[in-house]
Write a structure and sequence with these properties.
Cytochrome Bc1 Complex, Chain A, domain 1; 11 strands; alpha+beta; 422 residues; five-stranded mixed β-sheet; 2 domains; six-stranded mixed β-sheet
Length: 422
């Protein structure tokens, strides 16, 4: 954090539950984010997409309220309530006003509780949400980027649930039984394994009551342990998905560092310099500025099941794909061999330190970030001490991390289009 910015975080425990709280009364709003590990990784074979559909259906009616009445109740109290499932998580969140004349927070807690404890899965709602999901799955494959994404994950993690589309395929979704959706919700909705983060206009003394209302009725136990992320398997010659289009979508990546690795932040600096800094990044300079091969290229880190993955993308003309990949691999190797310059390191540290306050512009983002920190096993002072850790990085130390992190020979590539020369 920059000087003058602080985000006091405290842990509040009650009834066997624990939440991180960032109290802020500047606006009368409270945001709560919670979640469990698992998500699509726990979908049984043949039931892909069940966690995603289950999450979407939790706000489509609960208790004695069918879908329309449930949505009316949320709208009348100005409550934003959402559930979602990703490759490795199942999460919920809400944002609510604290109005003395109409306590939306209490209503939000009750409605979110009902959604988890008594979801209806009415036939009309199921078919409507299913149709929307099927359309989304089909739309995702209409362009080169969607085709490349499907092939990339399948090749990176073959025979693993992490290699499957987290929202399922159109074919699976069309025949997925309602019981599979119910089972997916039941797998996750437990008191055990639950991580909670809260931000906004609520005190530590008030929070236990909210936690009890929200989660006190959840059954004991916890979701099944998600499978570990297998080694990144995509490498060697590019995988080509043939499409009759004038421009190729290219996805590239490799395995990264575990999220709890002590070099995690040094790796972020490396990737900021290499591919995450817009026009200031090396990849943008060599690919767009110097050669005009693409309008943009970027790379960064994504954390899945406690493991970091280095992922990037670029789009370019069919005739220039081979040149683009050659330049990409050369720059990947150059960073691995020498790391950033002192000027690049200083600029990256200044950006990462100075931009940190901008991540906490509202209570919803703050709660989401706190939940992410908890998922990654960070201590409560992680944010407060981040500038200190970044400032302590040295060029030689970051160069050693670049050599450890980046593996030019292991860089996997998927191309969707009609590439020339591959």
């Amino acid at each position: 954090m920059t000087e003058g910015f602080s985000l006091p975080i405290r842990e509040v425990s009650a009834g066997g539950l624990s939440a991180w709280l960032a109290e802020d009364h500047s606006v009368p709003v409270v945001s709560v984010a919670w979640g469990w590990a698992g998500g699509a990784s726990l979908d049984p074979a043949g039931e892909e997409g069940s966690a995603s559909l289950a999450a979407a259906l939790l706000t489509e009616g609960a208790g004695d309220r069918p879908a329309a009445a449930f949505q009316d109740a949320l709208r009348d109290a100005a409550i934003g309530l959402n559930f979602g499932a990703d490759r490795d998580s199942f999460e919920g969140s809400f944002r609510s006003l604290r109005d003395p004349s109409n306590d939306g927070l209490a209503a939000a807690a009750r409605l979110a509780r009902d959604a988890m404890l008594a979801p209806r899965f009415d036939a009309e709602a199921v078919e409507r949400v299913r149709a929307r999901a099927v359309a989304g799955a089909r739309q995702a494959l209409e362009g080169p980027r969607g085709q490349a994404n499907r092939a990339f994950w399948n090749a990176a993690f073959p025979e693993s649930p992490y290699g499957r589309p987290p929202n399922g395929t159109a074919e699976r979704l069309q025949t997925l039984p309602v019981q599979a959706m119910r089972d997916a919700a039941t797998r996750h909705l437990h008191r055990g394994g639950l991580l909670i983060a809260v931000s906004g206009a609520i005190t530590a003394a008030e929070l236990p009551t909210l936690l009890d209302t929200l989660f006190g009725g959840l059954p004991a136990g916890e979701p099944p342990a998600p499978p570990p992320l297998p080694p990144f398997a995509l490498r060697g010659n590019p995988v080509v998905v043939e499409l009759d289009v004038p421009q190729c979508a290219v996805l590239f990546g490799q395995g990264g560092l575990p999220v709890r690795d002590p070099d995690w932040e040094a790796a972020q600096v490396v990737l900021r310099v290499l591919g995450g800094g817009g026009f200031s990044s090396r990849l943008m300079d060599v690919v767009r500025v110097q050669r005009g091969l693409s309008y943009g290229i970027g790379a960064g880190v994504e954390a899945i099941a406690g493991q970091g993955l280095v992922l990037g993308s670029v789009a370019t003309e069919n005739a220039r794909v081979a040149e683009t990949l050659t330049v990409l691999r050369e720059e990947w190797a150059r960073m691995a061999q020498g790391g950033p310059t002192q000027e690049e390191l200083s600029d990256a540290v200044a950006f990462l330190t100075g931009s940190q306050p901008l991540q906490f512009t509202d209570s919803r983002r703050t709660a989401s970030i706190l939940l992410g920190l908890r998922r990654n096993g960070r201590p409560m002072d992680w944010l407060a001490r981040r500038p200190e850790r970044l400032a302590a990085l040295t060029r030689d130390g970051v160069a050693a991390v670049a050599a450890r992190l980046l593996q030019p020979d292991a860089l996997g590539v998927v191309v969707a289009g009609k590439p020339v020369g591959l």
